[in-house]
């Protein structure tokens, strides 16, 4: 199967709970919509291991919409993990109490996150991770990002990053609440 061969995938009002691996994992899909879904307590500690399994994992996908959904309480993973994706909108979701980051974005382009509640995750609320070239054209606007154990927003080598109207409160990395760095290294604390 080649990238973009799967098209027009719509998950609407779907509940996936307590899956040992990822709740939803798609790779190489085009036009993916996840609307009004409840993905929680997915992503265990089984092989391939913790921090690699999430409530929602999308890799090499494009034209993505994640809207009006709950992505909560993954014991060892993130609520949403996007890896090498482009053209995604993440809006009006609850992304809370996950064992890793709330939202993990790696090597992606043209991603928008707005109107989300990102709360009480074990690491940073939103992480823009640098692996090879970093992320590009990222908009994080009008989110409520609070009580995460790391930074509210953490970013490394993100090109064309727009931050506006976010409410950041009670994140552990006080008082700055966010870390925006052009360093090509991440120091885990």
Quick structural overview:
The protein has 189 residues and is an all-beta fold. The chain has strands at 6-12, 15-17, 24-27, 29-35, 38-40, 56-59, 62-67, 70-72, 80-83, 86-91, 94-96, 103-106, 109-114, 117-119, 126-129, 136-141, 144-146, 153-156, 159-164, 167-169, 178-181.
Q: Which strand order does the major sheet show?
A: 1-4-7-10-13-16-19
Instruction: Tell me the span between the first and last alpha carbons.
Output: 39 Å
CATH arch. level architecture:
3 Solenoid
What do the pLDDT scores average to? 93
Question: Taking Cα atoms only, what radius of gyration do you get, to the nearest Å?
Answer: 15 Å
How helix-rich are the residues, as a percent range?
Answer: under 10%
Low-confidence stretches: none
CATH level-3 fold name: Pectate Lyase C-like
How would you characterize the largest beta sheet?
7 strands, parallel
- Described by the principal axes of the CA atoms, the overall outline is globular
Q: Output the helix-strand order.
A: EEEEEEEEEEEEEEEEEEEEE
CATH superfamily: Single-stranded right-handed beta-helix, Pectin lyase-like
How many distinct helices? 0
Q: What structural class should be given to the helix and strand makeup?
A: mainly beta
Strand content range: over 45%
Using DSSP, what is the number of strands? Answer: 21
Count of the separate structural domains: 1
Q: Kindly provide the name of the CATH class.
A: Mainly Beta
Task: Give the topology, please.
Blueprint (H helix, E strand, L loop, with lengths): L5 E7 L2 E3 L6 E4 L1 E7 L2 E3 L15 E4 L2 E6 L2 E3 L7 E4 L2 E6 L2 E3 L6 E4 L2 E6 L2 E3 L6 E4 L6 E6 L2 E3 L6 E4 L2 E6 L2 E3 L8 E4 L8
Parallel strand pairs: 1-4, 2-5, 3-6, 4-7, 5-8, 6-9, 7-10, 9-12, 10-13, 11-14, 12-15, 13-16, 14-17, 15-18, 16-19, 17-20, 18-21
């Amino acid at each position: 199967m080649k990238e973009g061969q799967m098209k027009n995938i719509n998950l609407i009002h779907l509940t996936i709970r307590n899956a040992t691996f990822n709740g939803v994992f798609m790779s190489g899909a085009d036009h993916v919509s996840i609307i009004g879904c409840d993905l929680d307590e997915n992503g265990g500690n089984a092989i391939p291991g913790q921090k690699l399994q999430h409530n929602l994992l999308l890799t090499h996908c494009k034209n993505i919409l994640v809207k009006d959904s709950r992505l909560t309480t993954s014991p060892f993973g993130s609520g949403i993990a996007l890896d090498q994706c482009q053209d995604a909108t993440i809006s009006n979701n609850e992304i809370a109490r996950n064992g890793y980051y709330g939202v993990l974005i790696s090597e992606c382009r043209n991603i928008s996150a707005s109107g989300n509640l990102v709360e009480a995750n074990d690491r940073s609320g939103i992480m823009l991770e640098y692996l090879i070239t970093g992320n590009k054209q990222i908009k994080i606007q009008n989110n409520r990002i609070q009580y995460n154990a790391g930074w509210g927003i953490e970013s490394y080598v993100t090109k064309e990053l727009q931050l506006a109207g976010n409410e950041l409160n009670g994140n552990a990395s006080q008082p700055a609440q966010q870390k925006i760095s052009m360093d090509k290294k991440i120091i885990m604390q």
